[in-house]
């Protein structure tokens, strides 16, 4: 088995980036979900309520992020790594309230115009510690603006298994993984406890519960019923539909596509 894809999503709920290699950090892959859009009340925004977020694609440059509209290349903006604003505000992600830093009022206005909703772009300062739930943490880890966990792993075989059951196959981007591996059987990751990818080691802490975001076409922003409807038929555990495994980093600095994946411990 080997690592076949690496993805980051620098701005939560916007289009992701496939990388040949990535730096590993406690909160997740470097740059992954370190930025986030919030509504006027400071609550996080996502494709669940604002599907058109999927139409904004992010890329990395030497100086920061570039955001463009997938359907109109003339609509774009540059976001420097270093925020222009020094203003801090408390934002909420699910049940967590954390301190974030506003990036730039003009950039927030650009997003507000594109989404037709008043919003702010914020960044997570290095000083902010959004602690994992104690029952999943190994060494008191913190996480970024991700829904709950630093790393999400999915096997290509698991997607293949699902697509065999669908009338219209779906791409992996519906599930927004960080790491995709090839070479294993479908859902083999369900039984793993600890793995090694290259020289890095991870602990698998819990399966990932899926939501309506998986039903949003990432190229059009249109919602459907699949693949959630089919998944619910054979991947429901305790009233939640599971696909993929959440992980925390135990050790390691960098991973690359092609790195061998070894199972260290199984259930």
From TrEMBL:
The molecule here is called MOSC domain-containing protein
Task: Supply the Pfam families for this chain.
Answer: MOSC (PF03473), MOSC_N (PF03476)
InterPro entries per the UniProt record, alphabetical: MoCF_Sase_C (IPR005302), MOCOS_middle (IPR005303), Pyrv_Knase-like_insert_dom_sf (IPR011037)
Classification from the root reads: Bacteria, Pseudomonadati, Bacteroidota, Cytophagia, Cytophagales
Task: Report which residue ranges the record marks as coiled coil.
Answer: none
* N-terminal signal peptide: none
Under SUPFAM superfamilies, the record lists:
MOSC N-terminal domain-like (SSF141673), PK beta-barrel domain-like (SSF50800)
Domain MOSC per the UniProt entry, residue ranges = 124-264
Q: Which domain of life is it from?
A: Bacteria
């Amino acid at each position: 088995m080997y690592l076949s894809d690496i993805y980051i999503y620098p701005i939560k709920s916007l289009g992701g980036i496939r990388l040949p290699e990535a730096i590993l950090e406690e909160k997740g892959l470097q740059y992954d979900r370190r930025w986030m859009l919030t509504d006027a009340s400071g609550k996080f925004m996502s494709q669940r309520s604002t599907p058109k977020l999927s139409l904004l694609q992010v890329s990395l440059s030497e100086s920061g992020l570039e955001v463009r509209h997938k359907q109109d290349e003339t609509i774009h903006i540059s976001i420097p790594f270093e925020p222009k604003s020094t203003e801090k505000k408390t934002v909420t992600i699910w049940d967590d309230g954390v301190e974030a830093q506003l990036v730039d009022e003009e950039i927030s206005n650009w997003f507000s115009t594109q989404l037709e909703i008043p919003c702010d772009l914020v960044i997570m300062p290095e000083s902010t510690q959004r602690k994992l739930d104690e029952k999943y943490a190994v060494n008191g880890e913190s996480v970024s603006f991700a829904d709950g966990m630093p790393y999400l792993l999915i096997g290509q075989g698991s997607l293949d298994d699902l697509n065999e059951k669908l009338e219209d196959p779906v791409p992996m981007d519906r599930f927004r993984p960080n790491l995709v591996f090839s070479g294993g059987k479908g859902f083999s990751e369900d039984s793993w406890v600890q793995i090694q990818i290259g020289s890095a080691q991870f602990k698998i802490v819990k399966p990932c519960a899926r939501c309506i975001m998986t039903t949003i076409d990432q190229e059009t922003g249109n919602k459907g019923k699949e693949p959630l409807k089919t998944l619910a038929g054979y991947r429901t555990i305790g009233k939640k539909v599971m696909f993929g495994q959440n992980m925390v980093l135990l050790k390691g600095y960098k991973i690359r596509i092609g790195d061998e994946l070894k199972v260290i411990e199984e259930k």
